[in-house]
Amino acid sequence: MMTEPRQQRAVKTREAIVYAAAHVFDECGYSGASISKIMDHAGVTQGGMYFHFKSKQELARVVMEKQQEFVAFPVGEASLQRLIDLTFFMAHALQTNVLVRASVRLAVEQGEFGKPDPTAYHEWVDQLCFFLYAARERGELLDEVDEREFAILLTGAFAGMQIYSNIATGREDLNERLVAWWKYTLPALAPAHVQAALVMRPYSREQAA
Predict the structure, then answer these.
(1) Model-level pTM?
(2) Measured between alpha carbons, how far is 66 from 68 in angstroms, rounded to an integer?
(3) What's the longest Cα–Cα distance across the chain?
(4) Which of 150, 208, 207, 206 is nearest to 182 (CA)?
(5) Residue 104 in contact with residue 162, Cβ under 8 Å?
(6) Would you write out the chain's pLDDT as a tens digit for each of its 209 residues?
(7) Phi, psi at residue 109, to the nearest 5°?
């Protein structure tokens, strides 16, 4: 019987630790998490833990910085509809993916484990700008809209909405809050004929097809 190569085992152990850390950070936050809790959840020894990660702070940084990797938004033609779809996809990810939830929570709490780093937020602004620039090329935006300014607004608004929704309902109503947000925001973003063709819909696997 062939034994698993050491390098492959090391990769699996590291992934198990990151996943366990996400569970603990999501449940307890940075302050409430501990290396021992993460070790127990991952089923690794102290030696195995410290071989891969030297501290809870390092683990938190890794989980937070992988946020974009955890969000596998289905490929599709960039447009204003796809931007709207992305926000509902993120709502779904927050409801179902512990890695996304943990990375987002740590991005909010990062002042607790070092100097705040806005990189995660900047990455989302850049991603949203991509869709907004495409929408501009398609004639879907009002002339006065500044794409980057709106991307910053949407990033901040979504961050606030998901925190509010999490506290109020465990994010069960996040889709409804998004529908309301887009209802009041779209008139300042797109002409009436464009708005009429847009759909506010919770993410489903059929959209990935």
Answers:
(1) 0.84
(2) 6
(3) 67
(4) 150
(5) yes
(6) 445 577 788 888 999 999 999 999 999 999 999 999 999 999 999 998 999 999 999 999 888 877 767 677 777 889 999 999 999 999 999 999 998 999 989 988 888 887 788 888 898 899 999 999 999 999 999 999 999 999 999 999 999 999 999 999 999 999 999 999 999 999 999 999 999 999 999 987 655 44
(7) -95, 5
